[in-house]
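Hi V.,

You were right to ask for the full record rather than a summary. Here it is.
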Amino acid sequence: MKTENELKEKPQKQRGNTKTSRAQWLAEAKKLLVQGGVEQVKIDRIAKNLNVSRGGYYWFFNNRQDILDTLLSEWQNVENDPLIKALNGQNLTPLDPFFRFFTRLLRERSYSPKLDSAMRDWARQHPAAAKAVELVDNRRILALKQAFLGLDYAPDVASIRARILYYHQIGYYAMNVVETETQRQESLPLYFKQLTGFDLPDKVLQKLYKN
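Predicted structure:
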């Protein structure tokens, strides 16, 4: 585990010695993971895509496993999870967590289903990735359960509803359903009603239509 001082030293060192940043290497590695799976995340390929030599890689990472570990660590960090942020925000009504949650899924901007799917594919091959996916899934389901408890569902009902909603969405991506954002928005009121048991207020719909 790197100390805080060590983490601070590296950016200072790299600015004078390489054209790339640590964030660029990570972003390109993530892109390769999404596009072709973990086997495509290789130092030479990342360097080629960044149009630099592989030597710059070693200013930021020790070896290939180091960047893979970093990708997993950053993805499973609760501070980087847009779905958890949506569910745990400030609420004016008990339905607010669901408004934000469904909006994140609908927009696919801060939340990347392709990255989540790539992580699940990775998890089928490697125990560390499987543990990360299990941690993230359990955390999201628990947050959904808390949101359903806020709607006065009994604990056992809240737990089942949380799983149904989450498994539905995972299945949606696993089946590679292709819809435009407009199509998803048109279906949102029906999905919202069936998955939460509550109607989606018109004012929320109007806000979505404007954005």
